[in-house]
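Consider the tokenized backbone below.
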């Protein structure tokens, strides 16, 4: 189709030609470069046109931009991604020792994204990956919904490789550390897997759950291995299986009230370094028979004000009684509020209850300092707060296709996310940030820290790689070791500098006229 003269007259690169494709719009007049000449036998050579390099738009030449370059972001969310990455490199090494590199990168990407966005679903995984520095730390991870679902199923099916990974974690636990074993229930509404069952509490609430048992290092406050059981599985049956499956030979089994230690008697006898610690009911006759409420001291090394007593009982076991002053006050207040609400205060009942307000009594087969027994049981609740971030099944799309293997694989990734979160909490606590804000507030701040892709690999607060970063956020990054602070010039000391003792100085000339010697005085 003929090109108007006014279009042909527009300035454009040399050796180009304008065409008219007849379709009105911004691309109606494409500009093609001359690719060469076609020789015609017995005729004149004809020019050969090449690719389109631009268009005549609004009476001016507009070149075609590099679409591929424009499709890539120039900046990504950095703060929270760098925080997760800074505490998880040993986990990557353990994964690489068991899984293929591309699998390890995908696993670490999913686990990291669940820490940054705990409710992220499979369908949103790729989008979150593309806009964060997780894509720079673990490049090439395949995170489409189908790929993630297939990976989780593969992780759940391959129990041998999961065990090898957990074996490396257990072997790396320091010999002097205490390893506790505990469990938690996680909501799972799937109707197509055998793990989703009604637990005793779940039946009352009308929801199905799965049971997750985990062993964790008390000193480090992070899990070392985990395993999924049906939601209706009781501790008496799941604990022995967990011990055998993971070949746990050292540690302390921390259980809830009512757990019978006799159910793991065989495991305890075959593993002399494995012990149990479980609370007993406040009306247990052994408390009165051993005078456990006659406290003998106050625990040291903890922030709470806690009384304690330790006693050896029949059978070689030990009882550890504790009375928390804060818990005493809260339980007394709850009792009085209930009595006030129903106008039914009973003095005799109050006197009977008051003796056990704030009291916790633990039974164990191990002789240990009262501080250790208290820490073993009290710290489990701190880890439980971390597990609550991953207790729903929002990380799995609600498609009704959450099979057994997918749930197991997802919990394996949640295990990694939990380890990362525990370490991040410890790091934030050690640098004093958790005294000034909550963990959630800290993550909100870090999620807002963006950095250019082409910025220096080792960030400095004064480099040009940051995007709209506030001074408060720089302070958090520096305290977490995620950005090098700006070097401060040395302050000049006031006053005159001291003379160097090694410098030879001229002798000081005496002031005034010299005195005459007595022999020189004229008589």
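A designed sequence for it:
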């Amino acid at each position: 189709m003929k090109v108007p003269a006014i279009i042909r007259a527009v300035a454009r690169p040399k050796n180009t030609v304008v065409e008219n494709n007849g379709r009105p719009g911004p691309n109606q007049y494409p500009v093609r470069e001359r690719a060469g000449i076609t020789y015609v036998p017995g005729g004149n050579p004809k020019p050969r046109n090449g690719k389109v390099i631009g268009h005549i738009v609004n009476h001016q030449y507009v070149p075609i931009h590099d679409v591929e370059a424009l499709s890539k972001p120039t900046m990504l969310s950095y703060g929270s991604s760098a925080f997760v990455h800074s505490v998880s490199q040993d986990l990557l090494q353990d994964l690489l020792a068991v899984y293929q590199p591309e699998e390890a990168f995908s696993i670490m990407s999913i686990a990291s994204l669940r820490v940054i966005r705990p409710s992220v679903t499979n369908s949103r995984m790729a989008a979150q990956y593309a806009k964060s520095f997780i894509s720079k730390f673990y490049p090439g991870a395949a995170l489409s919904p189908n790929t993630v679902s297939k990976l989780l199923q593969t992780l759940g099916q391959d129990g041998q490789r999961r065990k090898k990974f957990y074996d490396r974690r257990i072997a790396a636990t320091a010999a002097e550390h205490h390893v506790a074993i505990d469990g938690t229930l996680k909501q799972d509404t799937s109707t197509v897997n055998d793990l989703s069952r009604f637990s005793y509490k779940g039946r009352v609430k009308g929801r199905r759950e799965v049971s997750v048992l985990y062993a964790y290092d008390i000193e480090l406050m992070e899990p070392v291995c985990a395993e999924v059981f049906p939601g209706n599985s009781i501790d008496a049956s799941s604990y022995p299986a967990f011990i055998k499956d993971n070949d746990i030979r050292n540690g302390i089994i921390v259980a809830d009230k009512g757990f019978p230690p006799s159910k793991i008697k065989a495991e305890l006898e075959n593993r002399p370094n494995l012990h149990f610690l479980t609370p007993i009911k406040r009306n247990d006759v052994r408390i009165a028979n051993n005078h456990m409420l006659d406290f003998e001291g106050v625990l040291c090394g903890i922030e709470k004000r806690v009384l304690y007593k330790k006693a050896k009982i029949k059978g070689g076991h030990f009882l550890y009684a504790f009375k928390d002053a804060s818990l005493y006050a809260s339980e007394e207040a709850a009792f009085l509020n209930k009595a006030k609400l129903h106008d039914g205060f009973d003095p005799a009942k109050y006197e009977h209850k008051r003796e056990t307000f704030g009291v916790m009594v633990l039974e164990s087969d191990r002789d240990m300092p009262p501080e250790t027994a208290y820490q073993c049981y009290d710290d489990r609740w701190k880890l439980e707060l971390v597990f609550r971030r991953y207790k729903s099944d929002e990380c799995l799309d609600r498609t009704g296709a959450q099979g057994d293997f997918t749930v197991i694989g997802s919990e394996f990734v949640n295990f990694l996310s939990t380890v990362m979160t525990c370490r991040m909490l410890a790091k934030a606590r050690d640098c004093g940030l958790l005294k000034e804000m909550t963990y959630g507030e800290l993550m909100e701040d870090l999620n807002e820290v963006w950095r250019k892709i082409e910025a220096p690999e080792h960030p400095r607060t004064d480099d040009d790689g940051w995007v709209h970063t506030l001074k408060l956020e720089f302070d958090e990054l520096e305290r977490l070791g995620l950005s090098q602070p700006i070097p401060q010039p040395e302050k000049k000391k006031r006053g005159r500098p001291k003379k160097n003792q090694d410098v030879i100085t001229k002798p000081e000339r005496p002031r005034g006229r010299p005195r005459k010697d007595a022999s020189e005085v004229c008589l």
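Confidence is low (pLDDT under 50) at residues 189-200, 393-401, 517-523.
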